[in-house]
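Severity: low
Component: inverse-folding endpoint
Summary: output formatting inconsistent between runs
Steps to reproduce: submit the following structure tokens with default settings.
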């Protein structure tokens, strides 16, 4: 955390005098999942993942990727101020489930930069390889999009990062209503994830960074919503203790739209009455999910679960 505090970016970029260029470093770690049994158990309990599936929650890998990405954010030639970075989108693309007895390798590296009305957007690509028949094969790709907030920018050669449509949840089913999120949720999740960002821990430490109170971890929220959605669409498999089957690539795409200040009460909504397909690539829309509150005029988070080809990653939420 101290390294993140000390990484203030490149002055030419943060002052709006130079176009940001991302380093090409790659961070890699190998995980023997049986050795992670205690951490996986704690993660499953914290996110309510159906252990009857016998597979690892896909967001567990995204959680590990975020911890590893912190090493990228602290590089001296990383152009942005590290603690000004906001996670706004996370997409997981899976070709198969990872079993609890597998060995996997996770690799993270920077992607590209876009221009945003509040600064710059950039992404970090994570690859998860599993050992199948003695060979490493990609089983998952994670694309995390981040906003580096700053007032002065240079737009030469950069594409604009467009806004996203807020999906209607008028016909969605409430899976959980008034779900209480306790004030210490951030501390509980930090012990599991290793993410001790002070904005998640205490009201006072969050106020030091300009927030009115501490906020829930975005990746905890995504994992919780994915668990609720999985329990809804694969209820029969859970009852039978079976691993859910998907015929094509499974995509879990989340937009983080608003901060959830702790403590809080949230609703988790799911809509599976969907028959539409992607406008750009053949894909089946399995479910749309939201985290909402009766007191808010737009969702905290929206998620699309699709099965099929990779869709273009080119949209961004309205950041508040």
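Observed output (run 2 of 3):
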């Amino acid at each position: 955390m101290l390294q993140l505090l000390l990484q203030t970016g490149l002055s030419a970029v943060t002052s709006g005098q130079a176009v940001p260029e991302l380093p090409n470093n790659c961070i890699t770690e190998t995980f023997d999942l049986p050795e992670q049994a205690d951490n996986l158990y704690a993660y499953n309990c914290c996110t309510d993942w159906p252990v009857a599936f016998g597979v690892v929650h896909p967001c567990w890998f995204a959680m590990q990727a975020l911890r590893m990405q912190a090493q990228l954010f602290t590089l001296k030639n990383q152009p942005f101020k590290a603690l000004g970075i906001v996670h706004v989108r996370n997409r997981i693309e899976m070709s198969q489930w990872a079993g609890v007895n597998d060995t996997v390798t996770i690799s993270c590296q920077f992607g590209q930069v876009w221009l945003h009305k509040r600064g710059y957007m950039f992404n970090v690509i994570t690859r998860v390889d599993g050992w199948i028949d003695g060979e490493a094969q990609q089983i998952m790709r994670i694309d995390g999009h981040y906003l580096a907030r700053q007032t002065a920018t240079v737009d030469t050669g950069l594409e604009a990062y467009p806004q996203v449509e807020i999906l209607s949840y008028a016909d969605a089913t409430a899976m959980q209503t008034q779900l209480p999120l306790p004030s210490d949720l951030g501390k509980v999740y930090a012990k599991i994830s290793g993410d001790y960002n002070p904005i998640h821990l205490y009201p006072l430490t969050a106020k030091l960074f300009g927030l009115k109170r501490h906020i829930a971890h975005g990746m905890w929220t995504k994992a919780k919503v994915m668990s609720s959605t999985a329990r809804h669409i694969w209820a029969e498999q859970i009852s039978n203790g079976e691993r859910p089957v998907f015929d094509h690539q499974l995509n879990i795409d989340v937009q983080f739209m608003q901060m959830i200040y702790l403590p809080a009460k949230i609703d988790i909504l799911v809509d599976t009455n969907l028959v539409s397909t992607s406008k750009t690539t053949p894909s089946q829309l399995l479910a749309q999910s939201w985290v909402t509150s009766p007191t808010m005029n737009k969702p905290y988070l929206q998620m699309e679960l699709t099965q099929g080809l990779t869709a273009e990653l080119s949209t961004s939420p309205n950041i508040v």
